[in-house]
Specification:
The protein has a two-stranded antiparallel ribbon with strand order 1-2. The chain is 44% helix and 4% strand. The protein has 167 residues and is mainly alpha-helical. The chain contains seven helices and two strands, in the order αβααβαααα.
Length: 167
């Protein structure tokens, strides 16, 4: 099962790299993954991570890449028969401060989204998560560079205000 999970996460990471290649931003520079640190700010509705905390697959109810206590706390916030339209949680414990807590959370298996946790599935991206978790300055520098690159997106492409919706 661990091999299967590794393959799924590795595939998710590969998909993110393919997306970056399509924007000509990747250039084999893994520091571009710093953009994911934008998840240090904000809020997510239960529907965006519900599949990780219930009925994950035929073998596991909870995504095995998620820390069990983190999954339990999310289940408390997002009950099975959730009727609250605005139920959800912050994307990391310091969601009102731009910092490297997001990367520290990933190392603790407390990434909210599968795409977050998948950053540990390849040696290069895992090393990058570790680097950013240990140094806010390294993260900030790489994030600024990544955002400058994203600001040059042209040709009908856009940086989305809401990741789920085209502007």
């Amino acid at each position: 099962m661990t091999l299967w999970l590794f393959q799924v996460n590795r595939s998710l990471t590969a998909t993110v790299i393919i997306c970056f290649n399509s924007f000509h931003l990747w250039n084999h520079n893994v520091a571009n993954y710093s953009y994911a640190g934008g998840h240090t700010l904000g809020f997510s509705h239960c529907s965006s991570f519900q599949s990780r905390i219930r009925n994950f697959n035929a073998t596991h109810d909870i995504d095995p890449s998620m820390h069990p206590s983190f999954a339990a706390s999310l289940r408390g916030i997002c009950p099975k028969s959730n009727r609250a339209k605005n139920a959800g949680t912050t994307m990391d414990p310091s969601s009102t401060t731009f910092d490297n807590t997001y990367f520290k959370s990933i190392l603790q298996k407390k990434g909210l989204f599968s795409s977050d946790q998948s950053l540990l599935s390849t040696p290069k991206t895992k090393d990058l998560v570790t680097k950013f978790a240990s140094s806010k300055a390294n993260f900030n520098k790489a994030f600024v560079s990544s955002m400058i690159k994203m600001s040059s997106i042209t040709g009908g492409q856009e940086v989305r205000k809401d990741c789920r919706v085209v502007n």
